[in-house]
User: Fold these one by one.
Assistant:
Number 1:
Amino acid sequence: MRFDENADLDTSNIDDLRRGGGGGGGGGVGGRVAMGGGGLGIVGLLIFLLISFLGGGGSDPSGGGFALPNGLSGLQSGQSADNTEIATACRTGADANSNLDCEVTAVVNSLDGYWSDAFARAGQTYQPPRTNFFSGSVSTGGCGGATSDVGPFYCPGDSEVYIDLTFFKELETRFGAQGGPFARAYVVAHEYGHHIQNLLGTNRQVRAGDSGPTSGSVRLELQADCYAGVWGNHATTTPTASGRPLILDVNQADVDAALDTAARIGDDYIQSNLGGGRVDESQFTHGSSEQREKWFMTGFQTGDPARCDTFSTNNLG
């Protein structure tokens, strides 16, 4: 995947919390992450990391998300966004081809461009999420606090995406994923899929703590994968604020890398390779590797969000 070197980037929907006192993992946000009101020890946090990658709003699709025992909300003490550096560094697609911050910014621009157009064609108004870059730990405006261990996530409570960009290296080193720009874009697009579900109210169909191979939680995650694929289908034709598409090409190697990532964050792969070695379908919350690949490709091949209705089908794959 390559970006148009002459296209402009827009950093206005990015909040960089890594500077200005926001990064580093301090400021009282450390400690145990609580999920659904219960605390997790170190081992539990590791399992949560393994089982809940790309978990959207955490265990509570209605907006409970990640919460710390001390109930922090909003920006942590001393945590503030400082976009000076990213605004200076990320001006054009040429920057996106060489700088990870700018690459993710470009993907965000493309996602906003596609979903704004898709909503307009449906007679609806799209409200873009803000995307937060953080380091170590973060306190959200609607889902409490979280550390980098939970991976990228979307908070329905404040309609924002949170990413510690070091996650992408973890995906390669710990999970053995191929990586690459389009694989990383798939991760961001998946979180945007949760934003679309929040705007449409789809996430409110799912009960907190729901699990199992045909559970609402799995259907929600597979739909977000499908929405990511839909964007991927349109990525090279979607103009952004500059009036031209940011992304020049998506080739088969890019698609293969995205599918590789999807496979390595399937519940069965994680349980058998990074968990206890035994696959327990009753604990599925995100879908199997095969299902995640299938629904990403459903979106990518059709380019139609209407084909992503995982809630009305008996055949999840």
Number 2:
Amino acid sequence: MKERMNYILPILFVACAVFAAFTTMGQTVEYRRMSGMVFGTTYNITYQGGEELRSEVEAVLDSVNNSLSPFNENSVITAVNENREVKLDSMFTEVFRLARQVNEDTEGAFDITVAPLVNAWGFGFKNGYMPTDSQVDSLLDIVGMQKVKLEGGKIRKTDPRVMLDCSAIAKGYAVDKVAQMLRAKGVKNMMVEIGGEIIAHGKNGNGKVWSIGVTKPNDDTLAVKTEMQTVLKLTNVAMATSGNYRNFYYKDGKKYAHTIDPKSGRPVQQSILSATVIAPTCAVADAYATSFMVIGFKRAMEILKRHPEMKAYLIYNDEKGEYQVWSSPGLAK
């Protein structure tokens, strides 16, 4: 999934490989690869095409960063959070509207106004602390999508302390925008991955659909225990995975994970260990993967029944505390 070009291969081997890759049915079928850092994580892109598109990819990523990153002091979302006058761009408004749709569909489980709570628990864009029950209750007063709306090209808040954090949807959205740019350039075969959120289109360099690994949800803040749970064969879909096994901390012997329940104001304690969602767009997959971590197994099943266009691969603990796996019917095919 995160292949990188190996520049130290012998020249003769590279020449043979390039010749084989370039000559299928008389057409150029070169697969280019690029990787880098964005949004505090890595990105890896593989696509078929003769044109070098790194500058175009970076331009898309910069646009998303300038719109949706709360870590960027000059971004649109930072201006909104600081109650400064700002012209909302199309990226911000598109993500805001999608976030509201998912919020309504999940009965509030997905909520981009949860930022004050995420920050308070030490997982956001401000320094956190261990909040008391009264502090959590106080912050809940300024959390909820009903407290913010898009009106007349501006964000209207019921309370100036309301803050937005699109981290649970922005990476997926960025994947969508990069893939959209590549398709506009005529690219049909591609794999775009940002921080584990993925779009796979067409076929890989071996003429097969893309193989995407799902990591076992072992507690691993340093990302060194990358044992594979399974490998999914995907094409023409997007995939996102959410789990509490990478971003967490222990205090007084208790684990605190980064997914915050907007209703309780506290880190989730659901049975799902890892939620992988496959959907038509990566932003949708990203948002619902987070939602499933909040609502748990049974309610996730209810949502999947309403959305036949989505599939899921869920790793969870059953009522006996035993490790279980569930996947949508037909996903094995």
